[in-house]
Structure formats: C-alpha cells, structure tokens
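Final report, closing paragraph on structural work. Over the funding period we assembled a curated collection of sequence-structure pairs, and we close with a single example.
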Amino acid sequence: MNIKRVLSALFLLCGIWSYAFSNSTDKNTEDTFYHEVAILKKAYPSVNFRIDYDEEIDDYLLVVTSYKKTNVFYWAGGLYLPKNQLANKEKYTKVFERYSEKILDPKDMSEEQVEKIKKYSSKENRQSHVASKFLFNAIFDAWTRRTTESHLARNRFLGKWQSVHAMLVPHLDEIERQIYELAETDEEVASFVKNLASADSYSWREIRDSGARSFHSYGTAVDILPYGWTKKITYWGFEKGEGNDDWMLIPVEKRWMPPKKVVDIFLNEGFIWGGYWALWDNMHFDYRPDLVLFTRSRK
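Its predicted structure, as stored:
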C-alpha cells in the first residue's frame, strides 16, 4: 500500500492527528494538509471529512459529506479544488490565510503599504484573484441558488428579522444572548443595541468588482448597520465608488464600527469581522470558524 494511503488511514482510524497537533509549526506539505483538515473537523462538526490520495495526480484528496451529499476536492496547495478546476490554480487564493485581529490604522501605514493596498483593491486584481469557495459550497450545500435557499431559516437577531443559513442560527442565538447580557452593564453596547437598524444576511449576489460569490449568497454573512449609519463611513468600496482613490487613508475615527466587545463576541462564535481587513467593511461579519481556529493555532 502507498505510504501516503497508510498515513491517511492512521489519521482516520487511530486519531493520532488530533486537533492538538494544530499548534505544530512544521511547514512540511503533508503536515500542513493534515493540520487544515483537523481544523475543518473541529470547525464544522456536523460535516464528515475523509482523507484520500490520488496517486496519478500525486495530491491529497478531501472527501466532504454534508447534507447527505459527497464532494471530492484536491488539496492543490491549500486551494481545495474540484478536479475540473485544477488547470485554473493561478486564479484562486488559498482557503486558509491568517486573519488579522487588528485594525490597519492609516496613521501607521507606510507609502509602500498604501500603494500595495491600492493595487490589491483594483478591479483587475480582484477579478484575476478570487477566493476558492468550492469547499464551502460542499459544507453548506450551496452549489446553486435552489440548494442554498433550501437551507435558509427565518431568524430574529437583536430584534431584526433575517434569512440566514440554518447552520448559523445557534451561533447567532448565543451571540445575541451575550450581547444582551453585556448591554445591561455596558453603556456602549446598550447604545449599539438600541440604535441597530438592520442585521441582514442572505442575498444572492457577487462581491462587488470581483465576479466571485459573496458569502451573503450562502446565508453565512451578516451585515449590521445602525440608524444614521451614513453619517460615518462603513465600507471602502462606497468611498472608492465615489472617486476617493485615497479611501484607505480615511481616519479610523471617521469610520462607523460596532463596539470592540461586540466584535469579540462574534469572533468567539466563529465570525470574522470585515473591519480588520485591508479592504475594510465595518458592517460585515463572515461565519468562518475554520479561519478563526487557524489563526489562533498560529499564535
């Protein structure tokens, strides 16, 4: 039997590659793959992840079974691609990238950083490098609009109705519980709750200027906005669309954002906040427990 098949079997049958292994700093390709799979298993416990190997192509396979449907992906250096996309590797970015938990303050940015962000935010770059989301199509059974909408739930969150993927409901319920509890003693959080105008999730659409599906089209992203949100700036794209090419230099105090304690509550339930991105989107939260675990395993 091929040694890589033996290793896969050991992983599955003996459990020697437990989540504790995720703290390893080994950069070996094989270790990286097993580390990522361990994180996926912890992040999405209702989904079955099985490892295999394609000797002909010489790459690892991840077999994903969710909602009684099975899909197979090639690791492809962290891209997790179906076989018919292997020839397009250069088009996609990795599934696992370390997530910053710090606002990129323009006061601390060098001219080189500013130019790098300008280039990164260009329409040409955003269309030529898109996030690989095939894995999430399988996890959330979201390959088509029809299958996606079959898993949506009507949910009331912080007093606002939303359509959201059912997998997120218990996490949003816990976030709501913690926010309401904190609002009893924290004036900033209480004001945030009182002034919340919307908390929308599902919308079948692409990310602006990228041609890639938004996580809103999975029902796994939430946008929260207060009343009077237009008095401050919430999203880099709105500014750029108005002709402000120096949008990344907008002072942090001129941007609307939820309280840090609210952001942390979301984060602890597996949601990353768009305000920490270089292309900041301060109203936006993505459900990415895998990315949260991956980042924390690297600290």
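The CA atoms of residues 59 and 273 lie 33 Å apart. The radius of gyration is 20 Å. We thank the funder for supporting this effort.
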